[in-house]
Design brief:
By secondary structure, the protein is an all-alpha fold. The chain has one domain. 55% of the residues lie in helices and 0% in strands. It contains 8 helices and no strands. The chain has helices at 10-16, 19-30, 42-51, 53-68, 86-93, 99-106, 116-133, 146-149. Helix 1 (10-16) packs across helix 7 and helix 4 (53-68) crosses helix 7. The N and C termini lie far apart (34 Å). The mean pLDDT is 94. Bound molecules: zinc ion (ZN).
């Protein structure tokens, strides 16, 4: 099992979902009472603060790869707990929790493995939500590079 995935570059992440794309999606999600009801709890917030945004987004890459990317993910529809990790909360908040939700909200059809680009998109959605939930800029993912890029 690949635990240490190469972090997404700004080009990969923002290429998959830029600020404008996130803004559009964020507004759609806000229209759902269910989706907007998800917020980080004290424990998930503490974990995120302790690990840092970059590390948690890297973990998101692993979850996406293992739990969403297969054509038929194990326990699909029930694979994402509601609590216990900031990424899980982010997945429910952004409708990236299972293949059915990916299909309904993100037009990613179930039944086929996610492409690399689709995986990057899902990770980008999660990264935007997580950054916003702790009041950080997405640029916090790439300390030291922000001056050249943003
Ligand atoms: Zn779902």
């Amino acid at each position: 099992m690949p635990q240490e995935l190469e972090p997404l570059s700004p080009e990969q992440l923002l290429g998959a979902l830029d600020a404008r794309g996130w803004e559009t999606l964020r507004k759609r999600l806000q229209q759902s009472r269910f989706r907007r009801s998800f917020h980080l709890g004290a424990e998930e917030r503490a974990y995120l603060r302790h690990q840092g945004l970059a590390r948690v987004v890297q973990e998101a890459q692993g979850f996406v790869l293992q739990r969403l990317a297969p054509a038929r993910p194990p326990r699909d529809g029930k694979q994402t707990p509601y609590r216990g990790h900031p990424v899980f909360v982010a997945q429910h908040a952004t409708a990236t929790c299972c293949r059915k939700c990916l299909g309904r909200w993100h037009a990613i059809a179930a039944g086929a493995a996610l492409t690399t680009e689709q995986q990057h998109y899902v990770v980008a959605v999660l990264a935007w939500w997580l950054a916003e939930s702790v009041g950080q800029s997405i640029e916090a993912l790439w300390p030291g590079r922000q001056r050249q890029l943003f």
